[in-house]
Design brief:
Blueprint: H1 20-30, E1 36-37, H2 52-61, H3 75-87, E2 98-102, H4 103-115, E3 121-126, H5 131-138, E4 142-149, E5 155-156, H6 158-163, E6 169-175, H7 187-200, E7 203-207, E8 232-237, E9 249-255, H8 258-274, H9 280-284, H10 286-291, H11 294-300, H12 305-317, E10 323-324, E11 333-334, E12 337-338, H13 340-343, H14 348-359, E13 361-362, E14 364-365, E15 377-380, H15 385-399
Parallel strand pairs: 1-13, 3-4, 3-6, 6-7, 7-8
Antiparallel strand pairs: 2-9, 4-5, 8-9, 10-12, 11-15, 14-15
Helix pairs in contact: 4-5, 4-8, 12-15
Length: about 400
């Protein structure tokens, strides 16, 4: 029998967060080595508790999740989501514009399937979470990476975006707050992105899942609130803000011209019907969670766990010659830069593997976030301050004598 080939559209799909370096970390752990895994943003694995608001809602209502629910999502949950986005200034939406899925990962895949045709080009930030390039590849479309500028607080490079628009460009993605940089975009940047979409008839895809995880007095502006006349799909969820990654609770909110909303809703509904419904248990907690701002806010202020972990990381990185960074103001990620000449680094993957073997600390190289140069890596700042500080100190000690072979 001749070899059966797999689908060619899978050739470029990658998930470095759980790729070869992660596999090696698991092998080491299986041998009894204590590996600190800073590869994924999964707060509960570092002792962050589920908020009481979520637990109580789940316990009280669990029996309501036994049957299939509405293919778009439970009505009460969609009403709560709609009210949340209206409170952020998005106009003209109703619960019928909302689809709840098994995390933003599923919703992103549904969006790509519904929206992208073969040979469509999608503008995606670099660096960015690989979900979006992967969803684009699987839909048969082409991701076109535009630069976010480290020298400008990791904001999108507007000139670079404009230079990469072609007749095939279909959509423009922004991730705000950003993963992996933790940047929060100001309104002036959002307005420039909206102008590009308006000028070139593009759909704006706005991933805002970290919009409640803000520090240092920063505020978040929803893209769609500034663009009532532009097709926008806003993505959000509870995984990070309410510490329930395993619940797989994400959604999309479709806004803009009536004709776009109608067509997009009808198309996504076909996909939603195929998978019957999203996880009903997770939908039970959405109304209570979206009313609970305090449990999230408490983590992000001085004395709060995420704030203090960020401060611990920055204090220790400041002591390491050859590493620089732009301080994050949201989420729990940092994207430091490594001096490649100082350490003779030509492969960021080799660098990450060497650090793993030399320090028992796992992180993901920048190439895992579609960053072209071998000079960055992502840190997940979720361990307790003393634990994460010790990990950074070990990395600093390792780098005192490191040069890549």
């Amino acid at each position: 029998m001749s070899e059966i080939k797999m689908a060619g559209r899978m050739d470029h799909v990658h998930s470095d967060i759980r790729g070869p370096i992660f596999v090696e970390a698991n092998r080491m752990a299986a041998q009894g080595i204590n590996v600190l895994k800073l590869n994924t943003g999964n707060p509960a694995t570092f002792g962050f508790p589920m908020p009481d608001s979520v637990r109580e809602s789940l316990i009280k209502n669990a029996d309501r999740a036994v049957a299939y629910c509405d293919l778009k999502g439970m009505p009460e949950a969609r009403e709560a989501i709609c009210a949340y986005h209206k409170s952020k200034g998005i106009q003209g939406i109703t619960p019928d514009c909302i689809f709840i899925g098994n995390g933003v990962s599923e919703i992103a895949s549904m969006t790509a399937t519904a929206l992208f045709d073969y040979d469509d080009e999608i503008l995606i930030p670099a660096p960015s979470y690989s979900l979006w390039t992967n969803a684009t590849y699987i839909a048969g479309a082409k991701p076109v990476l535009y630069l976010c500028d480290e020298k400008s607080d990791w904001y999108p490079d507007i000139a670079d975006i404009r230079s990469k628009i072609t007749a095939k460009t279909k959509a423009l993605l922004l991730i705000n707050p950003n993963n992996p940089t933790g940047a929060v975009y100001p309104e002036e940047i959002l307005l420039k992105l909206i102008d590009i979409a308006r000028e070139h008839n593009l759909v704006l895809l706005s991933d805002e899942i970290y919009d409640r995880l803000l520090m240092d007095g920063y505020t978040h502006t929803s893209t769609a609130a500034l663009a009532p006349d532009v097709p926008v799909i806003t993505f959000n969820g509870l995984s990070k803000s309410h510490i329930i990654c395993g619940f797989r609770c994400g959604w999309m909110c479709i806004s803009g011209p009536d004709s776009f909303v109608k067509t997009m809703v009808e198309t996504v509904q076909k996909l939603a019907a195929m998978r019957l419904c999203g996880n009903a248990l997770s939908q039970l907690v959405i109304p209570a969670a979206l009313e609970d701002f305090e449990s999230t806010r408490a983590m992000m202020v001085p004395g709060g766990r995420l704030y203090e972990q960020r401060e611990a990381v920055c204090r220790e990185l400041d002591k390491i010659p050859g590493i620089t960074y732009v301080k994050n103001h949201a989420a729990f990620y940092l994207f430091p830069k490594i001096d490649t000449e100082r350490f003779n680094i030509t492969s960021d993957k080799t660098f990450a593997m060497d650090v793993l073997h030399g320090t028992n600390v796992l992180f993901i190289p920048g190439s895992g976030f579609d960053w072209a140069e071998p000079d960055h890596f992502r840190l997940v700042m979720l361990p307790e301050p003393d634990v994460i500080a010790d990990a950074i100190q070990r990395i600093g000690k390792f780098l005192e004598t490191y040069r890549q072979a």
